[in-house]
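Dear colleague,

As promised, here are the two records you asked about, laid out in our usual form so they can be pasted straight into your sheet.

NAME FIELD: protein one
SEQUENCE, THEN STRUCTURE:
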Amino acid sequence: MVVCGLACWRCRWLLPLLLGLAIIMGIIALAGRGWLESESEPYVQQASLWESCTRSPNALNWNCESLMDYGWGRAAAATYLVGFVILVICFALAVIAFSIEILRFNFVRGIGGLLFVVAAFQIIGLVIYPVKFTEDILLFGDNMFSWAYGFGWASTVVVIGCAFFFCCLPNWEDEVLGNIKPTYYYSSPERAPYLN
């Protein structure tokens, strides 16, 4: 016999766990110095969300310039940071929502809506940064948008996926809460004589 059905109630912590993963990736993106880096030696340029640093090929020390002196730098940092703060709030709300026995599915759908807002803010910040950075900052050598910038996009992709799941979860309310009986599929003896 095969049992069909969703075992979601036992897996209810998967969505808050994914939001926690998005928060960790967001912290790495906010703190990382790898938004832009030199692609090959000599490594003369690196940048974070907050500053751009350069050095001469033989020097050891970096000369850094704050990106907060630029309007676009403040806008990129503010939009990504606002999205991150709302993401932390959504994580707390998700933990609360899945902790109570009687799950409020309209509440869960609201978290999904907030996650779409998070994704919008983060995408705005992640698009403003490379467009304006390459226009206003003098680049030396071959450069690439690197690992910390990638973590920012990874966080955003996870948030978008979670937003869809949070919004669609109420459609399977009975399955998640275990209010339906599982369906058993089996073959009748007439159709499968070899089972006798």
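NAME FIELD: protein two
SEQUENCE, THEN STRUCTURE:
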Amino acid sequence: MSAPFEERSGLVPCATPWGRWYQTLEEVFIEVQVPPGTRAKDVCCSLQSRRIALSVRGREVLQGKLFDSTITDEGTWTLEDKKLIRIVLMKTNRDAGNCWTSLLEKEYAADPWVQDQMQRKLTLERFQREARIIFLTFTYLHQNPGFDFSGAEISGNYSKGGPDFSSLEK
């Protein structure tokens, strides 16, 4: 158990020698601790669809092929309080089944317990998003009783009533 689930934030961080990384359905967050007093001009960060490179004051901190693809134009980095670099990558594949098992293809893997917690969090996030859509749909239907779904088709994997969320922790 290298990283506990953070109840208040809902994060499941994966600790690394330089900081930590975590993910949501849509994004991957990377937090890198840097020497206090670091300035933006000391940072060189390259974000590509499948690659990342970060160096601070000429020293390589993080470099390699990402676990999965990201949207290049949506990636950002910021320097906070002159001691923390926060990188945000937008996943190309944004479904609950796309839980990254590591940050890079061959480095910074989550241990099995953390990986399980990450997957649970993403599944719960998807469930909450879908429940909100269902709630809004029913609210709309209640306010507009003449709306007709008789010709609608349901697509997706709903065998045996859909995914089983009964094992999720409350």
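A couple of things worth noting about protein two: The chain has one domain: 5-139. The longest helix spans residues 112-143.

Best,
R.
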